[in-house]
Amino acid sequence: MSSYTPAGRLGDPNLQVINDPRLDARLVNLLKSFGMDKNEPGTQVTIDSPMEDITAMVARTEDLGAALYAGLPNELPGDDKEPKVDHSEVIIPGPDGNDIALHVFRTAGTSGETLPCVIYSHGGGMVNNSMINKPHVRWLTDLALAGVVAIGIDFRNAYTQAGHNPFPAGLNDCAAGVQYIAAHKADWGIDKIILQGESGGCNLAFATALKANKEGWIGSIDGVYGVVPYISNAYGWPRERLLRELPSCIENDGYFLSLKSMAVFGHYYTPDEKDKTNPLAWPYHATADDVKGLPPHYLLMDELDPLRDEGNSYYRKLGAAGVPVTAHVNLGTLHGSALLFRQALPEFHAAVVDSIAAFARRLPAHVGTHSRL
Question: First and final CA of the chain: distance in angstroms?
Fold first, then answer.
């Protein structure tokens, strides 16, 4: 009788992502063309390195990420024939004397209709990336074409050229944006609000809901749709603990994301020791009481993602606390595939966008606050 071999790098520590038999075949050539067919080795910088070294590493990652996002092919035949989507920018005051840009995407000709609103927070580990780049604009455009008003909150990243904005700066910007939009629903022709984000943006969507729950304005939020949650800050944990709690961190380490780099990003976002397990910074650590009374959630994870199991764990935590929650895991996909690989996986991209819009449409708009039974 043959012995069982665990999946991924649990079964073969030397396995490269390109040779993992679970990987969707349509991604193979794309990964090769971008030099992503080898496992991400991570950084030599650690959380114990001087902050100037950490900042330099984060800055390099910002530049590399911007180049990747600009170069990834995401156009499809027929894009030039799709209905027009209007994009406008609204500047609102932030909580620290800063300005926050809200990027509003709405299908042209729908200004007289009342539509659900999906408020989007972008990925990048709460540290890197920008709202207005090719994949994000395409994502917001497709959400608008699916029948919602899509609004991207251009929150402060922890890293900017102007300086370091650690937790809770980005979260406070997201909360301010949601509260502003909620106060202007009638003006903007929207009837309910759904928070949506991927990776670090999913962290901010979850954390905004937790913050609203704690502060008593959760009734402003009708639902949360989280994609590939980056929520644990577990990336420097001992191997034994990861195997016990979050085995996908070992199983898929280096598949587009590396634990070494994520540990440094986590430290840059939450340099203060007391915040490293703060649920508002890292929702994985939320208690049953923290999540009780939250609105319906939908979670989506990718099979070959180091972060898969923290999403699975949060799903179970929500369900155990009585929060209405649904989840699914996409087979054969890497972290963030729905957003990043639209051209290679067009049906998958469309299915996720449609799922978000359908989730938004079927939720009832709440009046008052959600119950904390």
Answer: 52
